[in-house]
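Quick one: co-fold with NDP.
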Amino acid sequence: MKIYEMTDEQRIKLLLDGGYINQNQAELLRSRQTISTDLADSLSENQIGSFSLPYGFATDFLIDGQNYLVPMVIEEPSVIAAASNAAKRIKNSGGFKTYPTPRIVYGQIVLENITESDVAQLEQNDSEIFEFAQQAHPSLIKRGGGMVSLKFNHYDNFEEIELGIDTVDAMGANMVNTILEKTSQKISTMISGDVLCSILSNSGQGQVITVETSVEYDQLATKTMSGEDVAQRIVKLSTFAKKSIKRAITHNKGIMNGIDAVLLATGNDFRAQEAAAHSFAFESGRYQPLTEWHLANNKLVGTLKMPIELGSVGGAIKALPMAQLSLAIMKIQNSQQLQSVVGSVGLANNLSALRALVTTGIQAGHMGLQSKSLAISAGASGLEIEQVAQKLNQTKDYTLKNAENILMELRKK
Ligand code: NDP
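Sure, here it is.
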């Protein structure tokens, strides 16, 4: 039986039998538990409940020789199906190869009203500042991270001290902000000028990852189009995205569909990731697609290059039982491994979207899945949902009015 044809209980059993989860974790899934009042109170303000979204998993990810099921949290139909569909084609072609880099988070201490002698004083004492910042979070050094760079930048009336910090497996926003604020107190004693603010940068420039794949032509074929034709059309659309900013934005939205869904499932800060991704897309001064596709050696070769800003520890990750479950399902050991998975999902979702766009169009698969949401919007419940969805798929008229009419006819019987 295909996984998408299973019931949720059958899928939980599949995870249990496959050793992805233990009995306690299976019970957590079965309980459909939301977070406790205490946890909600500790994570956010003015809480009056918790908000659920569907939790599922994408299949067939072969990344750096390791197989993964990838948990995703998403309300948009077809994102998990699209990720799994492309992942299978890529797995049959040899899988994903990833190239993460060391994780460096940059932070800024912004100074104003400073004099030339202040600047000289700072530059002469750069080693002292570096060492002070290093000691501001000693546990990071024990974990193999800590300060990696210190730079001074001048902006008209402002002076910026830029710190590069290896936060090991944490996303690092809090850690870096703590280091920056402690260091800025020290700096304020060294100069006549003022500290305007201290805050990390979400540029993600120290967390850029590359993911590559080579897809066999036969993995891309449709009923009416050869794999080579599909590959050539994907390359053309990828090229068009480099020329048209409007297309590049939607191209990248498709990548973020998968990336944000895994970040949500692992309790990560998806707003930070969004900021990093789109600023990187604009790095050349012109908004560009975050992936590139070309043909080589009779294969379709795809590359994703972008910052992936996340942690496998820290923030809300430890506190959220479902985030812990997601990391357990993927057997995540460190943040670089999670970056590799997240980047691969982004590339898979991109391939699926491009393949659909240059062949049948995106609506064929998308609306087929969207029909259930439409049925619910029309008021269907229980068995009616599937019945209305099936009729919608038959008529291919995906309007709310049509869904309401179908439901009305169904209830007359
Ligand atoms: P934390 O403040 O939770 O710091 C990371 C924690 O993980 C530390 O307690 C650290 O312990 C612990 N840890 C355990 N193992 C490791 C390891 N292997 N490597 C590194 N740390 C480890 O979280 P972050 O600093 O990561 O900050 C993330 C949070 O900050 C997110 O919730 C984010 O939303 C939020 N945030 C984001 C901002 C932004 O993006 N602009 C701004 C402000 C906050 P120890 O201290 O002992 O080393």
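If it helps, The chain has a mean pLDDT of 95.
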